[in-house]
Amino acid sequence: MEHLRIVDGCAMYGPDPSGRSGGTLEDLQRIMDRHCVEIACVHFQQAARMDPRRGNDEVLEQIRDNPRFRPVAALDPRHIESGASEVDRCAKAGVRLFRLFPELHGYPWGSMALMEVWETLARSNVALIVPQGGAGFLSEFLAATRDYPFAKLLIGCQYWIYTEYLAGLRRYPETFLMAVAANYAGFYETLVEEVGAHRLCFGTNAPMYYVGASLMVLQHAQISEQDRAQILGGTLLRLLGENL
Amino acid sequence: MTLRRIDVHAHYGHWPFASTDHSFPALLAMVHEAGIDQCWLSSAKAITADLVEGNRELFERIESHPELAGQVVINPHFVRESIEEINKYVNHPQFVGLKTHPTYCAESCDSRGYREIFDAYSRISDKPILVHCFLLGEAQALIRMAADFLSLPFIMAHLGGAEWKAAVESAADISNIYFEPACSLPLADKIAYAVRCAGPERFLFGTDLTLLDPWFSIGMVESSQINEETKHLIYSGNALRLLGH
Fold first, then answer.
1. Among B93, B101, B91, B99, residue whose Cα is nearest residue B73
2. What does the DSSP assignment read for B22-76?
3. Which CATH architecture has domain B5-242?
């Protein structure tokens, strides 16, 4: 299993007022080394929490010559310059992954301000990472974006909303599940059978969460090595336009 | 005695959630594959529905499996029945303590019913009591109760839950409260912080199997910034000490 490439689709760096993450890219790289994570997709906390445009420039600058990282650009549709135009700008700079933070920014999925964002994501052929919410949160997102064919990477999911995620994955082929802190027994076994490993990818929420918690569940799942490789790295690399 | 892992928080039986297989063979496979040499189980049926029937099923099931041990589920609404259940199993060779879930019981852990049960229990046993804690109020109620029964070890499940830091800090001075890490949000400083706050001898290993995958808790311990000696205490040393080994 040691030879399988591990790509973490959900990591971050930079100051965090909750005290739960923080740290520099170098700190994150040490955590990656400890757990044999080869590549991490990262956003800069300041882009999510303060100023997406400047924060996204910061992450692009910081990881420019480092092959261990891929940028995730933060969006905040409450500001004109941080919504659709930011998708456009970052996509032209080579960014393939974007992320919204409704849990921090407080808007509903039905907001008209998001429609231009959906259109631009679809036109740019890039993927959107969607955070996990409570019951109904995912259904509202998928209903709001059903006419926009961009790749949707759903972070999830806790056992009490599992069937909602499964239904979403079954109904919408452009959706993918990024398993972060997936902790209930039989998670991977069931999802591989139901939707296939090519729709599943791996994330850790490092450095906020213990990497080992997410990783060891996947490493010990009763699935084929081919499926494990797909989930650990293949699916995400394909979305990034890279080879496993 | 050397054991790899003692899981102090595990369940047998069906939960009303999405996990795929709650059967006994699935439980055994999970325990063995995760290197758990001793697994302390309570009955999901006793917690969510039928106290007496659930406890009976569990102790019947584990009898031919020395790697499994049983916690008797108690309920403060059924004081007489709970004490009868304790008396029924307290001398069973696989008995390792009590389990209660104040949220399912809809009663605070410092209620009169709990007090009566713990009072009776403290006269005949000093094996640990695992208490579900997910809210700070539940943790605080447990802290109040534990301070009145210093001869009984109490295990604060889920490290106190969502507000784990406040729960751990509040419980740090109550020496008969222990912690276990089973959870859904594996925040990266949890275990090391609790160990610093309350000492390495008060942290136990728990998984919440078969609801949760045991490798999740193992991964938390393995990723923690703690030394090997502390890891050994967490995995098995502290639990063995609680059982008098």
1. B99
2. -SHHHHHHHHHHTT-SEEEEEEHHHHHT-HHHHHHHHHHHHTT-TTEEEEEE--T
3. Alpha-Beta Barrel (3.20)
B155 Cβ contact list (under 8 Å, min separation 6) = B8, B9, B128, B129, B130, B131, B177, B178, B179, B180, B204, B206
**B131: DSSP letter:** E
**Distance from C-alpha of B164 to C-alpha of B140, rounded to nearest angstrom:** 11
How far does CA B16 lie from the centroid of its chain? 20
Q: Does A9 touch chain B (CB under 8 A)?
A: no
Say which of A158, A184, A207 has its CB closest to residue B213: A184
pTM of the model: 0.95
Q: At what angle do helices A211-219 and A25-34 cross, to 10 degrees?
A: 30
Eight-state DSSP code of residue A198: G
Residue partners of A217: CB distance under 8 A and separation at least 6? A182, A183, A187, A188, B213, B215, B216, B219
Range 187-226 of B in CB contact (< 8 A) with A: 187-190, 209-213, 215-224
Name the residue among B188, B179, B186 with its Cα closest to residue B157: B179
B124 touches chain A (CB under 8 A): no
Half-sphere exposure for B130 (CA within 13 Å, toward CB): 31
pLDDT tens-digit profile of B203-236? 999 999 999 999 999 999 999 999 999 999 999 9
